[in-house]
């Protein structure tokens, strides 16, 4: 009965959203490609509905509510040790790890101190993109690229770190990427977003399931890293996750009140500037931008701060807890709410399309629980000071620009 009741509510909201979107700017389109939290996520959505009537009216019909994680099948210690052995074996086959120049793929760019307009009043208000507000930040450094599989492999090689997806034994993968053999084994699905499937054995080394590999994808962004995993990686690298304000300022590249890191035109001079979805999601992916799934972290032109793929390719974790309520007053170095249930992610992914997930914009945002992971979610790190080991590389890169 519960399911039918929920289905009716969803249907009503779906019809309502058509009525509303027909009257509003076409830019406030529905979305729902974000994925996949634990049980916390559902509770969080309910809390928001109780707190803010506007959120109920605008709630998208296809909010993905993922089932709880699969419990551990073995003791954690056994699982971790087994995974460490398996991972060491796989990583030892990556020749790129022995390349001295490839040891740490990422460089960092200095983001100057100053004030910028964070958020927007004109787009997806239910996500808490507004109000547009003045935010002042001290200078900081931001990773040039999304964290790559190669970097993550170095981290795992040095530390033996086992990700949450590996411990939980499952992660969410876009259905189109899963092999027929693996599809046949899956019995669970997320009713509200059936294109997301929990795949046993999907993790950063097996991005689309246990029969897939990151060989040949070492310069692509690492996938299936939870927020907790991302924090550990950044600590290892002598960095930290950016705040949402830092991420957004960095993505805007010094431009004020623009939709995208490069300006307001989605296709300037007809050029693809970002890895998103072309075609009708989720049935057709024409990959006109050159990529059906992730692209290399250095594909597409950088923004004016020298950052690549901030929007599109993969969503990126930031440190803030998620809220849709923001103080409209000017703020200095804001860090988001002190507590919360889910974390903010920024930038949209290769699964975003204007008609479905218009979130490959600088102000756009979404959320997931800190232990969740999926095949379109990654991160990049920030730092107050440039780590010593990067000083030479970054100086060289600047002189080449
Ligand atoms: Ca694409
Ligand atoms: Ca990105």
CATH topology of the domain at 101-159 and 220-399: paralog of FGE (formylglycine-generating enzyme)
**What about the largest sheet?**
4 strands, mixed
Assign the CATH architecture of the domain at 101-159 and 220-399: Alpha-Beta Complex
The CATH C-level class name of the domain at 101-159 and 220-399: Alpha Beta
Instruction: State the shape.
Output: globular
Domain Sulfatase-modifying factor enzyme-like: 107-382
Biased composition (Basic and acidic residues): 74-84
Organism: Phallusia mammillata
Pfam families: FGE-sulfatase
Summarize the structure in words.
The protein has 401 residues and is α+β, with helices and mostly antiparallel strands. The chain has a domain at 101-159 and 220-399: paralog of FGE (formylglycine-generating enzyme). It has helices spanning 2-23, 39-51, 53-58, 76-91, 149-159, 164-168, 180-185, 227-236, 244-252, 391-400, and strands at residues 108-111, 114-118, 133-137, 140-143, 170-174, 196-200, 315-321, 331-332, 343-346, 365-368, 377-379, 382-383. It starts with a helix and ends with a helix. The model is unreliable at 1-32 and 36-68 (pLDDT under 50). Residues 146, 309-310, 312-314, 316, 347 line the site of one calcium ion. Belongs to the sulfatase-modifying factor family. Residues 25-84 are annotated as: Disordered. It comes from Phallusia mammillata. One of its GO terms (molecular function) is formylglycine-generating oxidase activity.
């Amino acid at each position: 009965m519960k399911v039918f009741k929920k289905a009716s509510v969803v249907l009503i909201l779906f019809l309502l959203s058509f009525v509303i979107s027909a009257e509003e700017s076409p830019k406030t389109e529905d979305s729902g490609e974000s994925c996949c939290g634990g049980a916390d996520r559902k509770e969080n959505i309910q809390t928001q509905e109780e707190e803010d009537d506007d959120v109920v009216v605008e709630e998208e019909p296809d909010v993905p509510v993922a089932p709880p994680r699969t419990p551990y099948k073995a003791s954690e210690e056994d699982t971790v040790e087994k995974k460490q052995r398996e991972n060491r074996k796989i990583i030892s086959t990556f020749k790129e790890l022995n390349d001295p120049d490839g040891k740490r793929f990422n460089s960092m760019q200095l983001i100057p101190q100053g004030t910028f307009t964070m958020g927007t009043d004109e787009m997806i208000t239910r996500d808490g993109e507004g109000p547009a507000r003045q935010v002042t930040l001290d200078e900081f450094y931001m990773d040039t690229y999304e964290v790559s599989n190669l970097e993550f492999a170095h981290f795992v090689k040095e530390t033996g770190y086992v990700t949450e997806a590996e411990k939980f034994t499952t992660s969410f993968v876009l259905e189109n990427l899963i092999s027929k053999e693996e599809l046949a084994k899956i019995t669970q699905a997320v009713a509200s977003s059936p294109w997301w499937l929990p795949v046993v054995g999907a993790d950063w080394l097996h991005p689309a399931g246990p029969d897939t590999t990151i060989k040949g994808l070492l310069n692509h962004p690492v996938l299936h890293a939870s927020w907790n995993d991302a924090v550990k990686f950044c600590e290892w690298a002598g960095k930290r996750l950016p705040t949402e304000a830092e991420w957004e300022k960095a993505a805007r590249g010094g431009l004020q009140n623009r939709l995208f890191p490069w300006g307001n035109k989605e296709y300037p001079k007809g050029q693809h500037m970002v890895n998103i979805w072309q075609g009708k999601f989720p049935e057709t992916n024409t990959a006109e931008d050159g990529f059906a799934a992730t692209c290399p972290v250095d594909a597409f032109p950088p923004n004016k701060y020298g950052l690549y793929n901030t929007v599109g390719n993969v969503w990126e974790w930031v440190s803030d807890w998620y809220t849709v309520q923001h103080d409209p007053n000017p703020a200095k170095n804001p860090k988001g709410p002190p507590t919360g249930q889910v974390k903010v992610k920024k930038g949209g992914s290769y699964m975003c399309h204007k008609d479905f997930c218009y979130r490959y914009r600088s102000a756009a945002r979404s959320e997931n629980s800190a232990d969740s992971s999926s095949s379109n979610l990654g991160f990049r790190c920030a730092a107050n000071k440039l780590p010593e080991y990067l000083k030479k590389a970054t100086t060289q890169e600047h002189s080449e620009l």
